[in-house]
Amino acid sequence: MQSLRVCWYKSVYMTARFLASPAIGRKLQYTYDIVIPKHTPYMVFSNHTTLWDHLMIGMAVKGHMFYVAGEHLFRKKSTRFIGAFLLDPIIRKKGAPAGEVIRDIKERLGAGNNVWMSPEGVRSINGETAFISPGTGKLVKECGELGAALITYRMHGGYLRRPRWGKTPRDGKMWGEFVHEYSPDELKGMTVDQINEAINRDLYVNTFDDQKKNPLPYTGTDLAEYLETILYICPECKQMGKLHSKGDILSCECGYSVKFNEFGLFEPASGHPLHHDNIVSWDHWQRDLIKESLPAYLTTPKDVPIESDEGQILGKIGALKSVEDLGTGKFSIYVDRLEFDGDKGKFVFPFADIEGFAFSLQMKILFSLHDGTYYEVESKIPRSAAKYMVLYRFLIGKEYK
C-alpha cells in the first residue's frame, strides 16, 4: 500500500498533467507518441535537449513518475520548498559522485514507484546525444533484478528550439518518439554491455541529421549569440577563445566568420571556405584537435596556464544549497590543476584532489573535491565551460566523448 505522502505526489502529478498538457503541447508545438507501460514499476530514459523534457515525458508516458533533477535547479529556498512539497525529486549533484542518486532510484523503484531520468546527465551540448556512462547499464541491470522495466524515448527538435547555449528562444516544432519497453525478464537476460548498447542506440539523436533529412525552420532573433560558449576553437586559425558572436554571425578575431541560419546550419559569411556546416561536426573537430595537441599541452611549463578567462566568479556550495561567494577574478587551467586568482584571494585545486568535474546551463562550471567540498564557477562574459571540461578530461588521461 502506498503511503499518504506518495499518494499526495501522485494526485498533484496527475492533476497537473490533466490540466497543463493541452496548453503545454500547443505552446511548445509538441507532438508525441503516447506510451501505456505494460510493466510497473518502470524507469523512463530519454535523451535530454531542453529544460522542459520532464514535462514532455510526463505528457507522453501514462502514470506517475519521480524525476531525477540537477541540484542547481533547487538552489533557491522557495524552489526547494515547492519541489519537495509537490514533486519530491531525486536530486543529482553534477560534478559529484552518483552513489546517493543510485541508492535513491533503487529505493523508489523497490517501493513500487516509477522514475524518469536522462542518463546523459546534461542537456545536449552540440545537438547530438551526449556520452552515457557505462555505469548506466549496471544500474538498469540491478533495477531489472528488482522487477523494474525500462522504457526508452527519443526527443527531437528541442535542441534548435531552445539550445542550451542560446541567448534567445526560437519558435519551431518538437516531437517525442517511443522506442522500446524492456521488461524485467528481458533485462535479466541481457548483459550490462548489451543494456548499454541498447540505451545508446535507442536514445541517439543527431539534430543536424534530422534537419538534413527533413529541414524545419526554428525562427527567432540573435540566432548565433553565445555560440562561443560551445564552439571555442576557430577552424581557420585554430586558436582557442577567439570566437565571438553577434546577431546570427559567429566570427573569429582572425577574420573567419559564419552565419547560423534558421535551419540550424552554417553558411559562409566571409571569404573563407566553410569548414563545418553544423555544430556537431565543428564540435567533434575541436575535441579531436585538443586530443592531438595533448602532447604539447603536457609539456607546458607548470607556471603557464593552458587556458584562462577573466571576469569569473568562484562560489562554494553549502550543504543547504547556499553559495558562498569566494570572489571575482581569473580562472585558469594548468597542466596539473585549476586555479582561481580573485579579489578575495587565490585558490588552487590540484587535479589529484578533484573528485568530479561537470558543467551546467550555459556557462556554469561545477567540480567537487575528495573531501566533499563542492564549487562552481560562473562567468560575467560569454565563455566556454565545455573547453575546460574537455581540457580537464584529456589532461587527467581520460577520453571526452
UniProtKB/TrEMBL annotation:
InterPro entries in the record: Plipid/glycerol_acylTrfase
GO molecular function, one term: acyltransferase activity
Superkingdom: Archaea
Signal peptide coordinates: none
Keywords: Acyltransferase, Transferase
Pfam families: Acyltransferase
Phospholipid/glycerol acyltransferase domain: residues covered: 42-159
tRNA processing listed as a keyword: no
Protein name: Phospholipid/glycerol acyltransferase
